[in-house]
Amino acid sequence: MCMNGLDSTIVNPALLTIARDFGEPVSAANTVEVAFLVALAVALPVAGWLGDRFGTKRVFLGALTVFTAASAACGLAQGLTALVLARVVQGIAGGLLTPVGMTLLFRAFPPHERMKLSKVLIVPTALMPALGPPLGGFLTEHLSWHWLFFVNVPIGAAAVLLGVLGLREQVEGTAGGFDRTGFLLATPALGLLTYALGFGPAHGWTSPGIAVSAALGLVLIAAACVHQLRAAEPLLQLRLLADKVFASATVLALVTSAGLMGVLFAFPLLYQAALGASALDAGLSVFPEALGLMLASQAVDRLLPRLGPRLLATPALVLATAVFAALAVPGVAEHAWAVRALMFCVGLVLGTAVLTVQIAGFADVPPPAMGQAMGLFTIVRTLGGALGIAVTAAVISAAGGSGAHDATPGPYRAAILTTAGLVALGTLCALRLPREAPAPPPFDDEPEDQEARAAA
User: Fold this and answer.
1) DSSP string, 253-286
2) Mean pLDDT throughout 162-180?
């Protein structure tokens, strides 16, 4: 899961180098990143069903094996086409890794124990995407961009071996057959929408390919939603959104992911294009966010039982909005320590909100529905990240950002302010979170003992 989170951002600082090595324009090299995101989105709808049908351990380790092999193929690619194809395979496997892996964890721990689990969850879901830019810049500058993918191979091989020996199989089973209609509607819909969001800023929203993809994607997603609500055994259990807490957490995942991915996209560009920094410097500019995230995992473990989800997440999102806005203040980006302090605060306050939402949102989801709920949550969060990058790129383009060194910083600051607005929207959703943290069950003994007591 850490590798999957890392690969969503590690390529960003290397796109200019990849384009130069293959003799391609930067817009073409951007396909490397968009292809991964599109393929990941396409695989998400079936993740929950596959885990329930064939077992979470089997699906997780199978996806991990394919992801590792595809990483090796990416590193060995000798042309842009081969690299993009390998990224597609990597993205499909990655689309299964996170929701199935999170399902494994959330089924293993009851709601009242998931607060302690936050120390682990922060690493793949938030810390690794934050480490991607600095690690990508370092490897590109001191080795080569090929090592962005080669680093996955030994880690992936060791993880597969560890998983074979240590993971327990969990098969919930499915009452009905595979929802082919839902699959044929939801899968292309997510792929088309992610494609439009990824290429829209560079190619223009009114270009035929982008406009058709966006329109067709919206039509298909609407049709998929109608079908999922009517089907007896839908591919995606949209009825889970009838739960107020889970629905609020899912919307919060959308806006916070959009804000975080947007600022991780826009701020390194501000450093590179407007301030003339290198790829490594741009990556290191966001590294302190990772330290803030680690501290956030400790804070949530201690504060959530005392304050409850609503009282913890709402102030954190208000503070996150202020910190995001401060990054756009003229003169701040030119001072290295000011940037480091603000990025640390981004990780601390936004990480606190994200972890709180993730734990609280699944408190009332029963274990048999956990795979479906986690798949739906991950779909929304992934689309949120793509939306955040697309919105910030569109703002930069509309404000006249050229992407060249010595460019005016105004367009990049406008994009960062936009991400602050996205995070601010989340505050309204946080007010719908419960006041109380998940409570432990009345007895701490085994389920079999509880059943025996109930029978007696």
Assistant:
1) HHHHHHHHHHHHHHHHHIIIIIT---HHHHHHHT
2) 74
